[in-house]
Amino acid sequence: MIGLKTATAPTVYANGKKPSLLLSGLRKAFGDLVAVDGLDLEVARGECFGLLGPNGAGKTTTIEVCEGLTPPDSGTVELLGLDWRTGAAELRQRIGVQLQETQLPDKLTVIEALRLFRSFYNHGIPVDESIRTAQLEDKRNARIVTLSGGQKQRLAMACALVGDPELLFLDEPTTGLDPQARRHVWDLVDALKQAGRTIILTTHYMEEAERLCDRVAVMDHGHIIALGTTPQLIALVGAEHIVEFAVTERETREVKVAPLLAIPGVQSHRVDAGLHQLSVTELHTSVPLIFTALDSQGLNLSEFRTHSATLEDVFVNLTGRTLRDE
Question: Does residue 218 share a domain with residue 248?
């Protein structure tokens, strides 16, 4: 695994405080399917941490175990220094959860829904403040059935925040939203980060993770296969840029890969839906040689572009699968 250090001695924490989340040897299986397999993870207080991976990677199961919704088969699960077996009542007062889908009664108004959720907590923030935080002032008396998708997502986040949680779980909070609504949610998460809350975020959107998260972990087949900041992961993989090109359909099978891989700076090659992708370290030296190699094969380019390596490129490089593979 990349970027994850295994502790060999008890960890000394700053100010004597344990991390917001500590998982050790976490395992969860459903029959013969092992969803999470010996997972170790630590999230510091005040950190925005992203948990990424394709469907079936085990991230949702991991989050449900952390939220107390699913019991683990084995391993240690600590939140804010507590565990669900002995500290469930206190944990429910100190964490906030936004599920992938939050179903609220259609005929409730925004303010009624928030008053209901606020009643669950001994301490919290005023309902009016929750409404301002979610940017729903003009919808405070609107029924939930009349809200747009983005407004419903912001309301769900406000419900998760009304108890003033120290630790907040956001499970794919922007799935299905249009770009403008997604940006509104990003702004809200940014504000929560600035307030010093610990946030654990799952998402399929790599731009979202890069924009919001201090660190990310990539899961696949129940394991964490990479962990660190975005620049750290890209550096560990060893490719700073991606060169993509396509040739005519008739010529796709005629591309000779060996001459491309022999070019200095070219790290790897793969084909995705007819699009050839080369991981390279230095564009200014590699690109001219790539053009020369393709021209020497008599190939006609229909597309050619470059971009900086991303988290999705890191994942593909490690596993050969895209983040949207089922």
Answer: no
280 and 203 within one domain = no
Tell me how many degrees the CA angle 291-293-299 measures, rounded to the nearest 5.
80
Strands (E), the chain: 21-30, 33-43, 48-52, 74-79, 95-98, 167-171, 198-202, 215-220, 223-228, 241-247, 266-272, 275-280, 301-308
- How long a stretch of residues is the chain? 326
Residues in Cβ contact with 186 at an 8 Å cutoff, skipping those fewer than 6 apart: 174, 208, 211, 212
pLDDT at 251: 64
Q: Are 305 and 205 in contact (CB under 8 A)?
A: no
11-20, 47-56, 75-84, 232-241: least confident range: 11-20
263-292 CB burial, b ≥16 within 10 A, e <16: bebbbeeeeeeeebbbbbeebeebbebbee
Token output for 143: 């029924």
Residues whose CB falls within 8 Å of the CB of residue 282, separated by 6 or more in sequence, listed in order = 240, 241, 265
Structure tokens at 278: 């080369």
What's the CA gap between 75 and 28, in Å, rounded?
A: 9
Tally of CB atoms within 10 A around 10: 6
Domain check: are 175 and 272 in the same one? no
pLDDT digits (tens, 9 = 90+) for 52-100: 888 888 998 999 999 999 999 999 999 999 999 999 999 999 999 998 7
CATH label of the domain that carries residue 208: 3.40.50.300
Q: Are 80 and 91 in contact (CB under 8 A)?
A: yes
| Residues spanned by the domain of 278 | 240-308
Tell me the one-letter amino acid at 169.
F
Amino acid (1-letter code) at residue 15: N
Segment 27-31 mean pLDDT: 95
